[in-house]
Every structure is written in C-alpha cells, then in structure tokens.
Task: inverse folding
C-alpha cells in the first residue's frame, strides 16, 4: 500500500510546488515590471530634458553671445562684434549654424546692414522681403516682442539704448508664480513703462535651417536615444513636423525646444560669478563678458502695468548694489518662458506601458512555459515509470508461464523417450504412438519457440514481409488446415462463411495464415465444454476485406479487452484458470495485420464469446 501511494504523493507534492513557484513568479515579475517602469519613465524624461537642454543651449549660445553695447552701432566700430563672432565660432560645434547677421534701426525707412565675415564689418545692403517682414514684426511688437521667428529660422535681438549706470546684464530664470507676489510686496516702487530702456535697433541672426534639421537634431537624437527604442518627433507651433525619426502618436515624454530662457547657459557663463549671485537658485548666468564686478545682488521678478488696459506683464528686475543708491533696472520680456517647438518622445512599442506589459508577458510566458514543461515532464516520468513497472511484471509473468508451457511437453517427451529406451514399448503400434506423441509435443515446442522468436524479430524491426497479391480464401483454408488436427481432437464444429469473389489482398501468405491460426487457436483454447463452436467468415466492403474469427467461449471482461493486444498481457481470469499461454499471440497478430496496412478489432462479452475481426486493404 505504502509503496504504491508514495510516487503519487511525490508527484502531487512536486506539482503543488510548481504551482507555488508559478504564483511567486507572477507576483515577482509584477513587482519587477513596476520598478522597471519607474526607472524607464525617469530615464526617458531625463534623456528628453537633456536633449532639450543641449538644443536650447546651442540656440541660446547663438543668441546671447551677440548682445552688444548700443554705442557699437552708433560708432560703427565692429571690434566688439568681431570678438563675439570669433568667440562663438571657437566654442560652437556647428559654426555653420548662423547663415547671416542683419541690423536695422527701430524706425521705418532706415538702411539695413549685413555682416560680412570676410571684411569683418557690417555693410549696407538691400532689403529683402523676408527681412522686411521681420522688421515690420519687430517694430510693431512693443510689449509682445518675440525674439524667435520660427518661420524664418531667425533670432531677433533688440538693442537697447545705453543706460549709463548699467554696464552688465544678468539674465535669470523667472521665479515661479508664488515668489512673484512676494517680490512685488517688497518692491520699493511699482515700475512703469517709462523705466524700460528704449530699443534703438534690432540684430537679426539668421540660422541655417538645414544645419538645424540635418545636423543638430539628428546628432542629438543619436546622442540621447542611441538604441532606437524610442521614436522622436519635433513639431512646431503650427503643428508642422520639423524633424522625426518615426511617427509619434502619443508621447511618453516631451520638452519645449527653441527656447531662449537661458537657465542652462553654462556655455558662455562667467562661472566665477555664479556662487556670488546669492540665494539658492544658482542658475543665474552672466552673459556680458565685460562684467568684471560681482556686485549684482538681488534679482526679482516684477509685474508692471502696460499701456494696454488691464494688462500686466512679467518682468525681470535687476538691482545693482555697487551704486550709492541701489537702482533697479528692468528689461522687457525678451525671455519667453516656453519654447517654440515641442520634442515628443514615444517608445517604439507604442508606449512605455505597452513595452513594459509586453516584456512582462514575454517573461511570464517563458517562465510559465518552463514550469509547464517541468510539470509535463514530471507527469510523463511518472506515467512511463508506472508503465515500465507493469511491463516488467508482465515479463516476469511471461518467463514463468513460458517455463510452465515448456515443462509439460518436455515431460511428455522425456517419459515417452524413457519408455522407448527402456523397451517398455515393443509393439509396432505402441512405438508409433510414442513417436507421434513425441512429434506432437515437439511441434508444440517449436511453435512456441517460433512465436517467441517472431516477437523478438518483430520488435527489433528485422521481420520482413513478402507482400504479394493473394487470395484470402486460400489463406483462410490453409490456416484452417493447419489447425484441423487440433479442431478434430477438441471435437469443435467449424462454421465457414467465405463470400464468393473476394478481391485479392496484398499479403505475406505465411504470416497472414499464421495470424489467422493464432486467432483460431485462441478460440479453441478459451472455449467452454458446453459450446465447442467457432466460425470463420470473410466478406468484402468499403475497399477492405474483413476476416472474422468468432467463438462462444469464456469471453473477455471489458477492462481486459483494451489490453489484449499488448505484449505479455494475459487476463487475470485465464491465469487463475491455469489456461496455458504466453501473452504474445494477439500482439503478434496485430503486428502482422498492421504490417499489411490493416487493423484488428475485438468484440467480446464475458461468458458469451468473442469475435476478432481483421480488416485488410484490397490490393490495388
Ligand atoms: P495467450 O493466449 O498466450 O495468453 P494472446 O496474446 O493470444 O496470449 O491473448 C492474450 C489474452 O487475450 C489471453 O490471455 C486471453 O485472456 C485473451 N483472449 C485472447 N483470445 C481470446 C478468446 N478467443 N476468448 C477469450 N479470451 C481471449
């Protein structure tokens, strides 16, 4: 009892363990995915922001570097501008980014100047439609002045009138809204429009569109998103696509580009001054290279009233400390807070969520696949171990039953031989009886040996069949003939029902006859004394010839019926009844029939009889 339950318990325990492992795997993979998602979301946001910072820095570099003193334009002394130009070219990676510089005054009907890098000076040139457009916009803009002209890829920088006491410009990111209110409260006065320095002219920095689109943006894309896992698209204010690696439908991260808020303008920064600016915000940047003093102290954002009724605009407030009376200088809002373009980044799987979910599903699939494979292997090992056990038991039974089968004929042969040797039988009739006895038992023995050899041959795949077109009736008659002596001996009545004109079948006549003989022998062997009857029939139908061997013998229990064609199988009832046999006969019959391309089936009722039907395909 203990022996048979143990393996089953083991298998159940192992399967349960696999179930627990699968549940743990599921939970853990879920946790890992959440952590992965956080990490990847942070990473894509950082990469996107860095992309934006790098791009903006390049544009800001091309803009703020060219802030010049207003006197330069009056005196037409280009030394300062040339210095700036050389400085910028020395620092930038994209010296072709700026295509042209133009300057025009803050008034209609004035000449236009263009920078000539070869002559290193601004010279007068003709107005083009494009520059005219820029001038019209700049002159009309007043408060809403926009330094970026996205359409023309141009940066427009106002040149302010000289402020005697103001020889430095500090530009700083505006404080957030709450700080704004506070700084107004502490301000000593409310600045008005008259406090603003006047614009005297405008410097136009024309950028090269192809350098931006074909050099800077692709370079930044491969720098920040080198793996190609993400699709990038940059769209302009009018929703036009500026650049894209792939279409972006829903962004995982986005950032504003083409932004002139110099919160990261380290490129041109006078870094020594940074710590002295004070406050926790150390993002302030000194733009003017001429600044030698570090006396800039307070920077606040203020709100001033403009001419337009009920309108207020944010301003940057600069207070210079090194003067006797600290003076606040205001600049116009030439620092737009937002960029003109938007960089949108989307994972190539559709979204980060999709990607994480896909990866998780793949991992789950692989893990569950492996666990499932393990479970199937455990079950298969268990089943085949059980089968091997049953088979081993059958082989032991086979050896003992074969030995038993051999013992009886051997005993008969031995005693008949002994009698003959001792001269017990002297009369001719007696001697011939002994002779026939020895012959009969010898034949039985050799049949048994043949059957065993047949089985061994069939199993090693060495058995060859000589298939030819054969007449089924002839084969059946031959099989019956071979069994005739036993039929007579047992006193059986044989009924024959062989249809006329049976088609030929492709068969090995000897092997097929042997198979039919096996079925007939079984009918004789498993008969009851009351019903000594067997019937053999053959008919044609559905492209097959059906040969049936029928008896009214002991019959086969339904639970045994499905096993009778297995090698070594013998029903418990026949073993208990001590009916001799080795359990190989039917397995050999099946083997033979299948080698002929046919099949065998059996019907039986316990105590009533059995019928074995061989189905063979018709030749041709
Ligand atoms: P063997 O007859 O040597 O035992 P077989 O392979 O010929 O081996 O038959 C397997 C088993 O099928 C038999 O042990 C018996 O239980 C059952 N069997 C076969 N033929 C018959 C039959 N005609 N009537 C009843 N039982 C049968």
Result:
């Amino acid at each position: 009892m203990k022996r048979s339950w143990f393996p089953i318990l083991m298998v159940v325990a192992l399967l349960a363990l696999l179930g627990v492992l699968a549940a743990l795997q599921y939970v853990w993979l879920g946790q890992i995915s959440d952590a992965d998602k956080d990490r990847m979301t942070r990473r894509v946001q950082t990469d996107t922001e860095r992309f934006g910072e790098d791009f903006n820095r390049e544009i800001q570099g091309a803009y703020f570097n060219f802030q010049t003193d207003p006197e330069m334009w009056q005196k037409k002394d280009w030394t300062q501008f040339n210095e700036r130009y050389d400085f910028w070219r020395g620092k930038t990676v994209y010296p072709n980014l700026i295509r042209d510089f133009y300057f025009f005054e803050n008034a209609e009907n004035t000449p236009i100047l263009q920078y000539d890098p070869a002559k290193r000076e601004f010279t007068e040139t003709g107005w083009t439609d494009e520059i005219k457009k820029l001038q019209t916009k700049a002159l009309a803009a007043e408060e809403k002045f926009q330094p970026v002209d996205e359409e023309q890829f141009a940066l427009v920088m106002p040149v302010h009138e000289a402020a005697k006491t103001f020889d430095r410009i500090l530009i700083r990111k505006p404080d957030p809204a709450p700080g704004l209110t506070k700084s107004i409260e502490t301000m000593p006065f409310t600045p008005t429009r008259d406090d603003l320095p006047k614009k005297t002219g405008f410097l136009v920095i024309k950028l090269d569109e192809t350098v931006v689109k074909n050099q800077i943006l692709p370079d930044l894309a491969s720098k920040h998103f080198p793996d190609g896992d993400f699709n990038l698209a940059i769209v302009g204010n009018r929703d036009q696509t500026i650049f894209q690696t792939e279409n972006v439908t829903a962004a995982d991260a986005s950032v504003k580009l083409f932004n002139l808020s110099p919160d990261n303008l380290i490129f041109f920064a006078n870094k020594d001054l940074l710590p002295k600016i004070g406050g926790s915000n150390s993002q302030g940047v000194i733009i003017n290279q001429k600044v030698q003093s570090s006396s800039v102290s307070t920077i606040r954002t203020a709100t001033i009233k403009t001419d337009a009724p009920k309108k207020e605009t944010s301003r940057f407030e600069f207070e210079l400390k090194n003067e006797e009376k600290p003076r606040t200088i205001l600049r116009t809002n030439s620092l737009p807070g937002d960029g003109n373009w938007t960089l949108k980044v989307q994972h190539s799987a559709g979204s980060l969520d999709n990607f994480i979910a896909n990866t998780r599903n793949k991992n789950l699939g692989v893990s569950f696949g492996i666990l499932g494979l393990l479970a199937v292997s455990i079950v298969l090992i268990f089943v085949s171990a059980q089968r091997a056990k049953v088979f081993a038991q059958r082989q032991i039974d086979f050896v003992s039953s074969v030995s038993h089968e051999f013992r009886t004929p051997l005993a008969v042969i031995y005693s008949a031989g002994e009698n003959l040797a001792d001269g017990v039988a002297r009369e001719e009739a007696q001697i011939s009886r002994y002779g026939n006895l020895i012959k009969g038992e010898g034949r039985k023995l050799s049949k048994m040996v043949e059957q065993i050899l047949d089985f061994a041959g069939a199993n090693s795949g060495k058995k060859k069949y000589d298939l030819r077109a054969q007449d089924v009736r002839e084969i059946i008659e031959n099989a019956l003939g071979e069994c005739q002596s036993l039929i007579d001996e047992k006193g059986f009545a044989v009924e024959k029902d062989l249809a006329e004109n049976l088609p030929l079948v492709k068969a090995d006549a000897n092997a097929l006859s042997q198979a039919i003989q096996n079925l007939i022998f079984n009918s004789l062997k498993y008969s009851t004394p009351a019903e000594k009857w067997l019937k053999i029939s053959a008919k044609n139908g559905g492209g097959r010839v059906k040969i049936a061997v029928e008896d009214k013998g002991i019959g086969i229990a339904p639970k045994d019926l499905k096993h009778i064609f297995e090698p070594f199988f013998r029903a418990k009832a026949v073993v208990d009844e001590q009916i001799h046999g080795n359990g190989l006969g039917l397995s050999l019959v099946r083997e033979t029939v299948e080698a002929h391309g046919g099949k065998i089936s059996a019907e039986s009722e316990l105590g009533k009889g059995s019928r074995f039907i061989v189905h063979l395909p018709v030749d041709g």
Notes: The first strand starts at residue 98 and ends at 105. The chain is about 45% helix and 20% strand.
